[in-house]
Write a structure and sequence with these properties.
The chain is α+β, with helices and mostly antiparallel strands and 297 residues long. It is built from seven helices and 17 strands. The chain has a single domain, classed as Metallo-beta-lactamase, Chain A (4-Layer Sandwich), CATH 3.60.15.10. The radius of gyration is 18 Å and the shape is globular. The structure holds zinc ion (ZN).
Length: 297
């Protein structure tokens, strides 16, 4: 989607930070099953999966929702200038993300609310930017919404309470440069449990990928869109909801949440907008006899 999506009176803009070939299904998915893959791969168009090299295509992208005169930014990508010893792909980036945002009509100052679907290195980066050797909030007039479980879990000061952390290495550094500066300036709004942020904007806990993962549902005039973050990384997981990514913190919980969210999105007839879908960047989900199928790939 390059033009905004009109959803009732709301409008959704996609802001791309990066796109390209990512990993293979065999390496990204902890629950990869060769027989299932052979069965479903033919249903995935080349904009999402290169069948010759078995490479997944992915995006780093944010979304701006215009709703009732407010501008709400969903997820903030990898960011520029960050030290990322655990994931060189996102280290010291110098992308024109803010220019892309401005070209879509949004200055940094115009953003009212930032919501992270979860706290991971590729969802918090533009929370801050480097100014005179300090990390300062990129969106100075915004409140930043984080969930309580993620704010606790990823704070290095609480490390000893979470001995079985999966993503410590790959996520090294993000809390101190992209979350702590927001907390320190009192710009964070920490939410717990299901939350109505405003009319037509609902947060629902969806733990597993991270303890505080959440979905964000926008509703206007009976039309819905649900941002699911990394609960579904790739269309293959709609067909195969038991496939976790290797970045999921709690495997059993992540599988249960993925099925529950797909069920809810199908039932609510919402457009599902995952964080990393390439191609058309969003799908509808339909219930089929033995599971789910993505529509509109
Ligand atoms: Zn992600």
């Amino acid at each position: 989607m390059n033009k905004p999506l009109q959803l009732g009176d709301a409008r959704i803009h996609r802001i791309e930070e990066w796109s390209g070939l990512f990993m293979t299904p065999q390496t990204l998915f902890a629950g990869f099953d060769a027989a299932d893959y052979a069965r479903v791969r033919q249903h995935i168009p080349p904009a999402y999966l290169n069948l010759e090299t078995d490479s997944l295509l992915a995006c780093l992208q944010s979304f701006v929702i215009e709703l009732d005169g407010r501008r709400i930014l969903i997820d903030t990508g990898a960011g520029n200038d960050k030290d990322r010893p655990g994931i060189p792909l996102f280290a010291r980036l110098n992308t024109p993300f803010l220019k892309t945002l401005e070209a879509a009509g949004f200055t940094r100052e115009s953003i009212d609310l930032v919501i992270c679907t979860h706290l991971h290195v590729d969802h918090v980066g533009w929370n801050t930017m480097l100014q005179d050797d300090a990390w300062v909030p990129t969106f100075p007039n915004a409140k930043y919404v984080f969930t309580d479980p993620d704010a606790e879990y990823w704070d290095p000061q609480n490390r000893s309470r979470f001995p079985n952390m999966v993503g410590e290495q790959v996520n090294a550094g993000f809390f101190e440069d992209s979350v702590r500066p927001i907390l320190d300036r009192g710009l964070a709004q920490i939410v717990r449990g299901p939350t109505i942020l405003m009319d037509g904007l609902r947060l629902d806990p969806a733990p597993g990928h991270t303890p505080g993962s959440q979905t964000i549902t926008v509703e206007s005039r009976g039309q819905r869109a649900t941002f699911v973050g990394d609960i579904v990384h790739h269309p293959l997981q709609v067909f195969c909801p038991t496939w976790n990514s290797i970045f999921c913190e709690n495997a059993d919980q992540a599988r249960a949440t993925r099925s529950a969210v797909l069920e809810r999105v199908a039932h609510e007839e919402a457009i599902m907008i995952p964080a990393h879908f390439a191609g058309n960047h969003m799908v509808r989900v339909s219930r089929i006899s033995d599971g789910f199928a993505p529509q509109g790939l």
